[in-house]
Amino acid sequence: MAENLPSQEQPEEISLEEDEKRRLEQEWLNFSEANKMLRFLENQEIVVSDRQARLLAISCCNRLNDLLDDRSKKALEVAELYADGNANIEDLNEARRIAREVLSNLPFDENGSIDLGSIELTATQQALEAINCSLDASARLFLGSAIIRSNTAFAYAYDKNQSKDKANSYSVNLLRDIVGNPFAKEPIVFDENWRTSDVLAIAKGIYEEKAFERMPILADALQDAGCDNEEILNHCRKDLNTSECSHVRGCWVIDLILGK
Ligand SMILES: [Zn+2]
């Protein structure tokens, strides 16, 4: 039938499967809430690893640094080491014990509630709860709570309107930095030839020193190695001054290069 139509009127032939893929990608790109995205991934049987979940929870907490004392910051550092296998479960549990202690030392009233009249206290409590989620043995199970708690803390602490929108978009961007776009039309295949000693050294340095301002240098090195994948190059070159959030440990491009 289609052969009889003049060529300019021929509809683009899209298989049902392809059509479904495009629909999923569109839905994925439109999300503005991290927890909805996590549920969506789960429904599509796309697994966020425990390491990714922990790194995401930690980066949600890291933006609350001003609310945290040294013990809480140290606990987050242990969680980060644990995510990469550089601390053991005993270290994690000890960090969690300390984080719980910090939380329980907040001034609760006789009913065990925090004084909700105090915005700063509420923000701190939510931040500490989020840290405790990041320190759980199963980060994946508690990721949703870590996101909600840290968003609430952020809204209380930094947003005069106490709106969660800004906090929300921040956690969405963090999630996108870590999982990338699992529904991309062309799945990204990393060519072994791009993994030159230069590329590896730069990526390793960025990861270890959290020197994400060097991402454009990584893009140049990748290009020198022959990488022409626009998704990868554009991701490295996204403008950190205008973009709502930077790269974090767990960034999908760095992970791809380092094979994490
Ligand atoms: Zn990134």
Q: Explain this structure to me?
A:
With 260 residues, the chain is an all-alpha fold. It has two domains: 141 residues, no CATH class; 67 residues, no CATH class. It is 60% helix and 0% strand. It contains twelve helices and no strands. The protein is globular. Bound molecules: zinc ion. The site of zinc ion (ZN) has 5 residues, from loops.
Topology:
Elements: H1 16-30, H2 34-43, H3 50-62, H4 70-83, H5 89-104, H6 119-134, H7 139-158, H8 164-179, H9 197-209, H10 215-224, H11 230-236, H12 252-258
The protein binds zinc ion.
Give a nutshell description of this structure.
With 260 residues, the chain is mostly helical. Helix content is 60%, strand content 0%.
Number of domains: 2
What is the number of helices?
Answer: 12
- In total, the number of strands is 0
N-to-C SSE string, H for helix and E for strand: HHHHHHHHHHHH
User: What is the overall pLDDT average?
Assistant: 89
SS-based class: mainly alpha
Helix content: 55-70%
Which range does the strand content fall in?
under 5%
Radius of gyration: 21 Å
Backbone shape: globular
Instruction: Give the names of the bound compounds.
Output: zinc ion
Keywords, separated by commas or semicolons:
260 residues; mainly alpha; 2 domains; 12 helices; globular; binds zinc ion
